[in-house]
Amino acid sequence: MFNMMPKFGICYIELGVIIQLTHDITIFFGETMSIFILRDNVLATAKKVEIKRERDLEDWLENSPMALVENEFILWIDRQPRAQDEEGTIFPDLLGVDSEGNLVIVEFKRGRTPRTVVAQLLEYAAWAGKLPDSEIHQIAETYFDTRDGYQGKTFSDVFMEVFDMPETDELPSFNNVLRLFIVAEDIPSRISQVCRFLRTSYKMDVSCIAVSKFHTESGEEIINMEIGVGDEDVATSKAQQHTSPPSRWTGDKPVKQVVWEAVQEFTDGSVGVEFEIKQILVLIRKDNPDFKRPTMDGVMIADTVNHPSRGYHQATEDRYWRVARGKYRLYDPAKDRVGSDGEAS
Fold first, then answer.
1. Is the Cα torsion angle 39, 43, 45, 51 positive or negative in sign?
2. CB contact at 8 A, 176 and 101
3. CA separation for the pair 96, 76 (Å, rounded)
4. pLDDT, tens digit, 9 for 90 and up, residues 226-284
5. How much is the pTM?
6. Per the domain annotation, does 189 fall within a domain?
7. Residue 296, class by beta-carbon neighbours within 10 Å (0-12 exposed, 13-18 middle, 19+ buried)?
8. Which of 14, 113, 121, 154 could form a disulfide with 109 if both were Cys (CB 3.0 to 4.6 A apart)?
9. CATH number reported for the structural domain that contains residue 89 in this entry
10. Do 198 and 253 fall within a single domain?
11. Which residues share a beta bridge with 338?
12. Which residues, 6+ apart, have CB-to-CB distance to 81 below 8 Å?
């Protein structure tokens, strides 16, 4: 028995960045999770190895903002911030925001996850849930000074740049919803059950992602990420649906196809018609009212030929052209050219 598509994805590490693999070159078989690389019609074995340091997990995800949630880009705004609660100082591993302004908190664990991780994550959530917009901006701007490409920029500028918002748009309201993640090598069923209960019964967006590392004989490092908890719907009332967390897409068609069909409808297939993401969302939501903006962020980045963040994706199709920040049209291979730096030439 074999499966070509795990619940989340198989990736490889290049210079500390997690890059998604195309599914046609990687296969894994059975419950033992043996992974094979297909080259020249020969299967080369990749052996499972231990992740030596928790810090490695943090580095990989921090350097790979597309890797935590499929088809989403997370803007990290701090790593192990010094957070004060009534008991003293706590240190969330990674803090970020998604394109709708929801805060994202990630806790990493190497090896078998201890039972205390849920309480630890809830402590972080209690702290983060009280953060006003001004403090979120301050935390982010201090962190940006340590990250290449972000130094000296305001939170507003970086947010609008990363999420490709037109300059005329306003920032979303922040911290309406907390998105909590446990990322670990081994997540016991008891922890998964508690997180699933919190998710389905108490409206908490909690996800558990199991990470495995593999080495090939040629020295490649491969990462498998599987969602243990997170596919379930978060319980929400009708009054809360407009601020509900972005759930993973569970429609019959892939997200790429849903977006592509909506763009084709909006442009009527013409490369001369420009569009914004929010206009495509309006079309998609006619038939899929629960479709969230973050769900299509990764698709637009991956399929836009000249998008500055396209390098985070290995598997891409040449479909769109970025005209200006937040504005797109269909890609025209006859006239659209990209330089070696990824910019239009």
1. positive
2. yes
3. 4
4. 888 876 555 443 334 344 444 566 778 888 999 999 999 999 999 999 999 999 999 99
5. 0.81
6. yes
7. buried
8. 113
9. 3.40.1350.10
10. no
11. 344
12. 91, 92, 95, 139, 143
